[in-house]
Amino acid sequence: MIRPSNFFSLPSVLPDQELFESLFFKENIRIERIISTGQTTPLGQWYDQEQVEWVILLQGEAVIFFEDGLRCKLLRGDYLLIKAHQKHRVEYTSIEPPCIWLAIHVYS
């Protein structure tokens, strides 16, 4: 019998680092759940990903800053398409409630 999982069910104790959980991976696509509790990208560092990433914030609040100066405040239900090699960093994630993200990565 297949048992469903609940996307909003969180571990009783959240780790100090962001929690990345791979939900699906096949050929050129990966789907993951990310749980953030106040974590940010260290100053001076950027995400520079090989793949396109579509991300939706399902719970919490966050701010993503792009190298070109664009700053995006995300609230529950907001989503972004981040192009490959579009440098960005996470400037803020809420602690209460924790941020719950759904990220879809598409590899060329």
From TrEMBL:
Gene3D superfamilies reported in the protein's UniProt record: Jelly Rolls (2.60.120.10)
Stored Pfam families: Cupin_2
Residues of the Cupin type-2 domain: 48-104
Family matches, as SUPFAM superfamilies: RmlC-like cupins (SSF51182)
InterPro entries recorded: Cupin_2, RmlC-like_jellyroll, RmlC_Cupin_sf
Name under which the protein is recorded: Cupin
Organism (species): Aphanothece hegewaldii CCALA 016
Classification of source organism: Bacteria, Bacillati, Cyanobacteriota, Cyanophyceae, Oscillatoriophycideae
